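Duplicate of #3305? Posting structure anyway:
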């Protein structure tokens, strides 16, 4: 399989790439990020033999579609404002997509994804997030909590 990781040089992206490189059945990982020094940023973290680096140029939607047309699946770790562009590119290229962002912002794209036969899986992040961990810690400091 060929897997694209959008935002591949962020904290989650680097971890995802390291896991994918070590996974059976993954023959190529495409790291898509605006930073031009991808190999230097991932060097020492994982074997880069099967990692290809892409710096998108031009309008984000067409640039992502260009990359996604050549992969089997995509992991979207881009900031939430770019989620719609990533999902539209996935629908347009019929590439299954997993994103860490919440699905409400793209709920209106569900019919197009269904018609294209594309799976879009949202909210696959690092939950519980630090906010939930902190809330739980704070709640445990009280003897009782009432609504």
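Output from current build:
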């Amino acid at each position: 399989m060929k897997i694209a990781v959008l935002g591949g040089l962020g904290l989650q992206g680097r971890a995802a790439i390291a896991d994918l490189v070590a996974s059976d059945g993954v023959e190529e990982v495409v790291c898509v990020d605006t930073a031009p020094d991808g190999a230097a940023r991932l060097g020492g973290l994982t074997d880069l033999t099967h990692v290809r680096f892409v710096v998108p140029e031009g309008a984000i939607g067409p640039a992502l579609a260009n990359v996604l047309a050549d992969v089997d699946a995509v992991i979207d770790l881009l900031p939430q404002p770019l989620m719609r562009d990533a999902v539209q590119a996935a629908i347009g290229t019929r590439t299954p997509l997993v994103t860490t962002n919440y699905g409400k912002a793209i709920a209106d794209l569900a019919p197009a994804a269904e018609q294209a036969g594309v799976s879009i899986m949202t909210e696959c992040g690092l939950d519980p997030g630090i906010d939930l961990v902190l809330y739980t810690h704070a709640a445990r400091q009280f003897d009782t909590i009432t609504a």
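Confirmed duplicate; merging threads. Residues 73 and 96 are 5 Å apart (CA to CA). The chain has a mean pLDDT of 90.
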